[in-house]
Amino acid sequence: MAMEAGKLPTAGKPIRCRAAVSRKPGEPLVIEEVMVDPPMPHEVRIRIICTSLCHSDITFWKMKDPPGCFPRIFGHEAVGIVESIGENVDEVTEGDVVVPTFMSDCGECADCKSKKSNLCSKLPFKVSPWMPRYETSRFKDLNGEVLYHFLFVSSFIEYTVVDVAHLTKIDPAIPPNRACLIGCGVSTGVGAAWRTANVEAGSTVAIFGLGSIGLAVAEGARLCGAARIIGVDTNPDKFEIGKKFGVTDFVNAGNCDNKALSQVINEMTGGGADYCFECVGLASLVHEAYACCRKGWGKTVVLGVDRPGSQLTFSSFDVLHSGKSLMGSLFGGLKAKSDIPILLRRYADKELRLDEFVTHEVGFEDINKAFELLIEGKCLRCVIWMGK
Questions:
Q1: Per-residue model confidence (pLDDT) at position 336
Q2: pLDDT by residue (tens digit) across 282-326?
Q3: Does residue 348 register a pLDDT over 50?
Q4: Which family is this sequence assigned to (predicted)?
């Protein structure tokens, strides 16, 4: 019988392929053969072309207690090609190039239909070890043991299964080692300035923490036309890097002459920055950011992931009298299916800088080297190629 047009012989069958499996917290990943089930309804199986390493992978790789769980397949910044689709999937087809995202965009719930939010109610974000609709895994090792998913993506594998609500079709002309960055970090930072804060031209921005997310915020603020972008970090080397992304001033957080960080920035700006972004994940830094955010219209945006249970405490008097806003931003407030194509078009038009984020590229066999580089602070983004 002739094969259906467009269908690969693997469609509907399990695929045996290589994955970098995390067996124990903090231990090197093990590249081994695993089995990947075919997609269920509303799911898509994709062949990963390349994936990049994000700090969130490292955070959960080190985590001994829940929501940390093992054995697990990490990775959530990637680009791939659709190998096969499950039932009820009509927005992508075999051969499409796609970017998976940890945030869903179902297009059906009140939130996804609104311009005000990217927090889908139908498939809400959580740190789950399963697929979003079925609470089951699509991965097993060769002994039949279940391997857990990560952030609904799990891209440290040659083939993965992703819910269609977590997939965005992209222009295949975009280089994959750039498109993968849009899956999490760069989108989160750029989106926080563009969509969450709605940074205005001519405004002043302060960014606490110049890692990949902070630098992406700077890039977003630059694209929005911010006049002054103040970078705050304990590493003075970050200023030179930051200049590429529009950072105009630098404050060394470890050397403020016995002044509070917020006092230094308030003095620099004559009353505070219009927009402050916390990109580290420290409650104390959120307080500092809020304290040097301009009264009346200032916005403080929290992007950093703090330890579980961490609390923020604000004076009721200050909140009432200062008139400032404090908000969180998951995935930069972006709606994946509509905003990712815009960002990639801006990259193609040489407006959005992506090239400068990629500092290293390795083959799949050297994935543990990517972990070492990021932990040592020697890289922004390391792209891991599956087929090289």
A1: 97
A2: 999 999 999 999 999 999 999 998 888 899 999 999 999 999 999
A3: yes
A4: Belongs to the zinc-containing alcohol dehydrogenase family. Class-III subfamily.
pLDDT value, residue 59 = 92
**CB contact burial 272-301 (16+ within 10 A = b; e otherwise):** bbbbbbbbbbbbebbbbbbbbbbeeebbbb
Which pLDDT belongs to residue 307? 83
Residue 328 has a pLDDT of 96
Distances 242 to 110, 183, 229, 293, 312 between C-alpha atoms, Å: 38, 21, 10, 21, 28
Starting from the edge strand earliest in sequence, which strands make up the sheet with 249-252, in order? 249-252, 228-233, 204-208, 275-278, 299-302, 325-328
